[in-house]
């Protein structure tokens, strides 16, 4: 049986030279005032082999907390256990402004980066990403702000999130620093990057895709339609063959694509975080991978 190629080893984040794990841990729901509990989650992710940690300045209000709350909580964890910071590649995002909704002007980007660094209690982050494209800011202005932050040593690499391939190309045209990462929604139930040209662009430009909502916003765990159930059944077959859960099989399906997407796992339960490494176990044949794709599309490929 011939499996699609996959390596569980650390890989470069785009062309930045930064090495990261094949799975990331996301902090959209990283919340609360219990620093010890928050530290336990970070330590569990590191113990599971995760080195790429993804947060954002907007993480907080969805949890009933202030803007910047998730970054501030992580900053308190770093203050309590300083050694954790140097064991990870830290990524954050900015550009979403409640009520605006987006601002990528040079002035805002500069202020947002400084504010994130202050909340996190760090001098730099490995990756800073524009969270969503601001269509009212010229990409040349965005590039100027990002280049300045990079030159100042505040950000080691630049990424984009929820950008179209054309928006990414426009920014790169004006930006002398190579864009390292692109963050789309991608899962066995959300296939847009396969058809929009985003993964093709990632492979062409050497971008690392970071897949958010890799478990389909919970729909893979609890299917609600015949299409979702058909995907879940195929994932269950693969999971059983490798002694892992359905979620691990879903993550492994993502990672089998040649663009080498890195799924961002968002679980906040320590016991589930400890199982992240299970996703490195399943291997897919070409026929098995395409079967999941066809089930998700609800039609046979021509």
Quick take:
With 302 residues, this protein is of the alpha/beta class.
What report would you give on this structure?
- The chain is an alpha/beta fold.
- The protein has one domain (11-223, 253-281): NADP-dependent oxidoreductase domain (TIM Barrel).
- 39% of the residues lie in helices and 14% in strands.
- The protein is built from eleven helices and ten strands.
- The strands form two sheets. An eight-stranded parallel barrel has the order 3-4-5-6-7-8-9-10, surrounded by four helices.
- Helix 2 links the parallel strand 4 (52-54) and strand 5 (89-94).
- The protein starts with 10 loop residues before the first strand and ends in a 5-residue tail after the last helix.
- The mean pLDDT is 98.
- InterPro entries: AKR_Detox_Biosynth (IPR050523), NAD(P)_OxRdtase_dom_sf (IPR036812), NADP_OxRdtase_dom (IPR023210).
- Pfam families: Aldo_ket_red.
- It comes from Sphingomonas changnyeongensis.
List the helices and strands and how they pair.
Blueprint: E1 11-12, E2 19-20, E3 24-26, H1 35-47, E4 52-54, H2 69-80, E5 89-94, H3 106-120, E6 125-130, H4 139-151, E7 155-161, H5 165-174, E8 179-183, H6 192-195, H7 198-205, E9 208-211, H8 226-242, H9 246-255, E10 262-265, H10 270-273, H11 286-297
Parallel strand pairs: 3-4, 3-10, 4-5, 5-6, 6-7, 7-8, 8-9, 9-10
Antiparallel strand pairs: 1-2
GO cellular component, one term: cytosol
Domain NADP-dependent oxidoreductase: 23-289
Protein name: Aldo/keto reductase
């Amino acid at each position: 049986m011939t499996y699609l190629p996959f390596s569980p080893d650390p890989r470069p984040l785009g062309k930045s030279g930064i090495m990261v794990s094949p799975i990331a841990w996301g902090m959209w729901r990283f919340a609360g005032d219990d620093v010890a509990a928050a530290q336990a989650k970070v330590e569990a992710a590191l113990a599971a082999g995760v080195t790429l940690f993804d947060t954002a300045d907007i993480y907080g209000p969805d949890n009933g907390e202030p803007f910047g709350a998730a970054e501030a909580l992580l900053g308190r964890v770093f203050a309590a256990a300083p050694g954790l910071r140097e064991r990870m590649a830290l990524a954050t995002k900015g550009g979403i402004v409640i009520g605006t909704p987006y601002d990528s002007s040079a002035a805002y980007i500069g202020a947002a980066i400084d504010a994130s660094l202050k909340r996190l209690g760090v001098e730099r982050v490995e990756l800073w990403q524009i969270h969503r494209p601001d269509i009212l800011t010229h990409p040349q202005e965005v590039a100027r702000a990002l280049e300045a932050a990079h030159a100042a040593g505040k950000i080691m690499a630049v990424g984009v999130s929820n950008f179209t391939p054309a928006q990414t190309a426009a920014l790169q045209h004006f930006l002398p620093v190579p864009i390292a990462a692109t963050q789309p929604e991608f899962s066995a139930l959300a296939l847009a990057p396969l058809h929009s040209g985003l993964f093709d662009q990632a492979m062409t430009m050497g971008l690392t895709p970071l897949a958010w909502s890799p478990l389909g916003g919970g729909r893979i765990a609890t299917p609600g339609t015949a299409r979702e159930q058909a995907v879940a059944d195929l994932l269950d077959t693969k999971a059983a063959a490798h002694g892992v859960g359905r979620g691990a099989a879903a993550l492994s399906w993502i990672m089998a694509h040649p663009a080498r997407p890195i799924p961002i796992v968002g679980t906040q339960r320590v016991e589930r975080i400890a199982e992240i490494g299970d996703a490195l176990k399943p291997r897919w044949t070409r026929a098995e991978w395409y079967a999941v794709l066809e089930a998700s599309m609800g039609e046979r490929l021509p």
